[in-house]
Amino acid sequence: MRETAKLQLPRRRVLLTAASATLLATMSRLAFAAPAPTPPQETGPFYPRTLPLDSDNDLVRIAGHAKQASGTVAHVSGRILDSDGTPIPEAKVEIWQCDSHGHYHHVDDDNPSALDPDFQGYGTTISARDGGYRFRTIRPVPYPGRTPHIHFTITAPRGRRLVTQMYVAGESRNEGDPLLSRIRDPAARAAVIVPLDPAPEIEPAALAGTFDIVMD
């Protein structure tokens, strides 16, 4: 009887150890679950037909202009990630948006004379080794039919491409926006809605937000 108990004790320890390892592995998978892919959206009609001479990641300042763009400065940054959470370096990240008057730098804009000449309108950058990117732009504003948004296109080194849009948290027009409304999944919808909070530590009177983009 005593010998049987001795044999059962190590076996019980083995079973408990195996169960603990399984539990830890499950918890680890849950804690480090792969992020959901960022939902794709339409390019829209206002992607530039001709890129501006100054097309860096600072849309607020144009080379050779004495003034900076009107509107509230917003620093938008984040990381470009693969579907397993791995950073994607050397991805081309492009953004474009309307100026503070609601007009695009595009030949099809309905009132080009109202454009802010000091707003670049389009910018591009390359993601860093950790997938990071950063833009200095303005807080997007609404125009007829659309809630405030910034267009994004990401082109990975091997040619994968994602077109999406970033929206501003707390905007009342979000609920009725025709493109944002097409994203039915609540988690996917939340992934493209970004809070823009005061960031005086970056720049006086500026806002900042984080928009991580996951390529499928």
Give a short account of the largest sheet: 5 strands, mixed
CATH structural fold name of the largest domain = Protocatechuate 3,4-Dioxygenase, subunit A
What is the CATH level 1 assignment of the largest domain?
Mainly Beta
Helix residue percentage: 10-25%
Tally of separate helices? 2
> What's the architecture of the largest domain, going by CATH?
Sandwich
> What's the name of the CATH homologous superfamily of the largest domain?
Aromatic compound dioxygenase
Mass-distribution shape: globular
Number of strands: 10
Order of helices and strands: HEEEEEEHEEEE
Q: What percentage of the residues does DSSP assign to strands (E)?
A: 15-25%
Average pLDDT confidence is: 88
Low-confidence residue ranges: 14-31
The number of domains is 2
What Rg is obtained from the alpha carbons, in whole angstroms? Answer: 24 Å
> Helix- and strand-based class?
alpha/beta
Task: Explain what this protein looks like in three dimensions.
The structure is a single chain. The chain has helices spanning 2-31, 186-191, and strands at residues 73-81, 92-96, 122-126, 132-138, 149-155, 161-168, 193-194, 197-198, 207-210, 213-214. It is α/β, with parallel strands linked by helices and 216 residues long. The chain has two domains: 1-32; 73-214, Aromatic compound dioxygenase (Protocatechuate 3,4-Dioxygenase, subunit A, Sandwich), CATH 2.60.130.10. Strands 1, 4, 8, 9 and 10 form a five-stranded mixed β-sheet that branches. A hairpin with a 5-residue loop joins strand 5 (149-155) and strand 6.
